[in-house]
Each structure stands twice: as C-alpha cells, then as structure tokens.
Input
Amino acid sequence: MNAITWATFEPLLPEMLLVCTGLVLIGLDLFAEKTREVLPWLTVLGCVTVLGMVLGERNVSAFGGMFLTDSYGVFFKVISLLSVIMATLMGEHYRRVHGLRHGEYYALMVFAATGMLIMASAGDLMVLYLGLELMALSVYCLVGMNKREAVSAEAAIKYFLMGVFASAIMLFGMSLVYGLTGSTSIAEIARFTARTGLAENPALLAALGLMIAAFCFKVAVAPFHFWTPDVYEGAPTMVTAFMSVGPKAAGFAVFGRVLVSGFPELQPHWGSLLAILALLTMAVGNITALVQTSIKRMLAYSAIAHAGYSLLGVLAGTADGLSATMSYLLIYGFMNMGAFAILVLLSSRGAHHESLDDYRGLAKNHPLAAVLMLIFMFSLTGIPPTAGFIGKFYLLRAALGAGYTGTVIGAVIFSAISAYFYLRVVRNMYMSEPEGELDFSYSPGISAVLGLALLGVVGLGLLPGTIIGRAASALLGQ
Amino acid sequence: MTAAPSFPPQYLAILILILFGIGFGAVTLYVGRFFRMSRPYHEKLVAYESGNEPTAEPRMRFSVKFYLIAILFVVFDVEAIYLYPWAVTYDRQGLFALVEMFIFIFLLLAGYVYAWKKETFQWEK
Output
C-alpha cells in the first residue's frame, strides 16, 4: 500500500476547504441565528479564498489520474466559483427584499460549487459522476427552496425526476464503456480505443450516444431541453441565474473532457451529431423566445440557445474550438448573471416584476438600471463592443475552421433572429411610457454583482486577447 | 489484449438465458389456458380464504414524515455498510483508516445534528 502523505491530498485542498465552509455555514445557521447577516459574506470569503487557491494550482494528476488539476479544469473552476460568488451576492439582496429565511441556501450553493469543482477536475468517469451528483442534488434543493410556492416545488420535482433519469442514462452509457474498454479512466479509454480499433464498434457508439444524451440534458441542449423553461421560471431568480451559468459550465467541462480526451477517435461520429443538435438547439431556443412575455422565461429559452452556441466549439473537437467554448462560457456567465441581477433588483416583496411590460419606461425613472440592462442585452445579442460579440466570433470561427459551414450559417441566422427579443426589452425600456412605479433600491450585494458583470462584459469586450489567450494556453498546456 | 468483437461470445450464454426466461414464462402462461378449467362463481371471486373484504383503495396519501424517517434510516444504513469492510481490514490499514473513518463519522454526525435541530425526530410538532 502506498504511503498516504500530505502531498496526496494537496490537489484536493480547495474542495476540502469548500466542504468545511459549507459545514461552518450550516453550523452557524443552526446554532447562532444572529449571525445570519454574515452568512453571505462568509460564503463569498470562502469562495474567493478557494478561487485564489484554484488559480495557484499546479498541474498535477492526483489519485492515480482520477483527479486532474490541469489548466482546462482550472478555467472551468474559475467560471463555477464566479457564478457561486455572484449568486450568493444576489441572495444577499434577495434576503433583504423578500426575507429569505433559509440559511441552507448558502451551504447548498457551496456544496454545489464543490461538485462543480470535482467535475471540472475529473479524470475518471466515476469521479465525474460523483461530482455531477453532488452538484445536481444541491441544485435540486435550491430550485425548491421556496417550498411553500407551488411553482417552485413543481420546478424542483420536475428537475429532480428528469435529472435522475438523465443520470441513470449516463450511468448506463458509462457501464457499457467500462464493459468494452475495461477502464473508467478517461485517458485509458482513449488509449484502449486507439490500440484495439474499437472506434467502429456499435456497442461503443451506443454507449457514447447514451452519455451524450445525458450530457445534453445537463446543459439543456435540444431535444433534451424540455425541463429548462419550467424549472428556470419556477426557481427563485438567483438560483435560475446560478443554474444557467455554473452547472452549465461544469456540464460543458465534462462534455469537452469526455468527448475530446476520451473519444477523440470517434470525432466524426459525435461531431456531426452535435452539429445537428446545436442547430436544433439554436432554432428551438431562439424561435420560442420570440413569443415569451415573461423576461425570466425568455432568458430561459435564451439559455437554451446559448447552449447551442457553446456546442459549436465542442463539436469542432479542436483546441481552438474548446478554448472558444471556454471563453464563451465565461463571457456568458458575466452577461447572463448581469441580466438576472437586474431581474432580482426589480423584484419586490410580493411582486416579481418579470413581465416584459414591467420594463416599460424603465429608462425614465431608473436610468442606471436601464443602461445596465441595455448593455447585457446587447452582449447577449452579440453586438460589439460587448464581450458577447467576441465570444460568438471565436465560436463561429472555430466551427468554420473545422468545416461545419452549414451549422455556422444557421448560427448566424438564429443570432440575427435573437436580436428581436433581446432588443424588444431595450425598446420597452427606452421607447415606452412607464406604466407603474417600480420601487427598488441597490443593496451592496446586488451592486457588487452588477459591477462584476459590467466589468466582465465590457472588459472582456474591449480586451478580448487576455481571456482567449488564457483559455488557449490552458488547452495547450494540457 | 485482443480486439473486442462487436458481440463478445462470453455474453452469448446470458442472451440465451434471457430468451429462455422470456420464452418459458410466455409458453407456460399460454399453454395453461388449454388445460385449466374456468368456472368462476361468487365465492371463488371474493378474497381468498381468511382474507378480508377490501374496504378502500390501497393507494392513499400518507404523511411526508414517513419519507423523512426513511431517508434518515438510509443515511445510517450506509454508514453501517461502510463500517463493516473498514472493521474487517482495520488491522492492515492502520492509523490512516482510523482518521479517515472519524472524518466520515463526523460528517454524518453533522447531518444528524442538523436533522435533530430541525426537529425531524419529533413526530408531533
């Protein structure tokens, strides 16, 4: 038996610290009710510390290759932690306005973050599944947090049932892969497939298909997206914001890792399959979003559409494509968090103000909120000089470079269609008369989120080289 | 290792077993129709021998508290399952296994304290 020393655990330290943070949060919530005001800031402190530790991680392969702290994983960990930090800050505002009584919110957020970090580092299908379930179970609970509200409970039940079904399908695929290759290690699967010429084996293709179906469910790619609108609409807004960024990025992390590192030989198969799915996803997301009257539901369909865009980089199967997906997910994180933060900001006790009509004439009474929403909507559409444009540009270039011309043309067309529903919000804010008076105030939490999101959207839009360079070097250093 | 064929022959026995299982069930159920008598009358159709007459539908709603108890039971059941292999190999694992198990039990204990404090164990609240 190998000696177990401190060095064995060192790569896991950030995850361990997160678990400890979660336990402290639960403990404080249970035994020191007066500290509730501090919980969100404690969460942010824990996550920022972990973020620092993650950024300083060396490239190691721990536990016999099961846990990889390579720069690919680190990049996704950064996205996940940023989403947790921003959602926690939104929760702080939500607590002030709606009187959020559940201290578990923060602990569940932290546990979900632990799951996402494990997913991003997984070098083995079992570790991947472990992280996925840890994240998913926490998010199921977060969705149903307002348990007295029927929509929230309905969303949680729907998400849970569909989620466990997808997990079961994934496990079925994994077990087939294990049966065929004799290993659950992603690197070993790739080696075995290459050595034995297993690539054309129908059973392996079936296994890959099952796993792709489950991954598509987790990142809301059509035709596995049906849970998304209801769950996103029913969940508390900051949980929706979190779900559409963090777990989605973690889902793409395993998507890319399994397909590109585990099944590079099968790229012709999954590449063309994903090209069709990406096109379908963009069509469903963008066209359905056109007719929504609730901004929250519109953003849910927009999240589906953006999953389609993000797939463009994965399906190319190249380092270029993956780095485009990675940077797009980071950019998407900033702009989507920003848009949802405006939703959280505008909601007041008893009234959520999620309808498009609530945004009429917003610019007149609240110019700052309106201009921020304008920037996030422009970025989601992909209008320069916002970061959304840069992200889309690199994705399209990567897919074009890999020869998926038809998909790229589709993406451009659907992107143009999406301008209608994003800019409709802007038109309502700037070109209509206000109907009712919206009363809200900026709390430190929501201001911090909006500031961070604005910094991300504008900063990455004006200085794109930094982020793309980092994502590219993350892959080349792999 | 040799190249795996698309259908490994070791699995052929399992396939035959599955087909035989399905076939046996189907055949016996179908063939029985030709031999058994079918003479239903009232006494034969009521609840068998000492059984009672049904008074209500079996699918009724019952309190969610039962599920909470069931979930808490699973937690400690899993702990027990984990403790058995640990106890068997304890003398070979040494101090590391002891510390590891204490961390595991501590995490479970935290969950237990949480459940207790949330008054999960109180039937009447």
Q: What stands out?
A: The helical segments of chain B are 12-35, 42-45, 65-88, 90-93, 95-117. The mean pLDDT of chain B is 83.
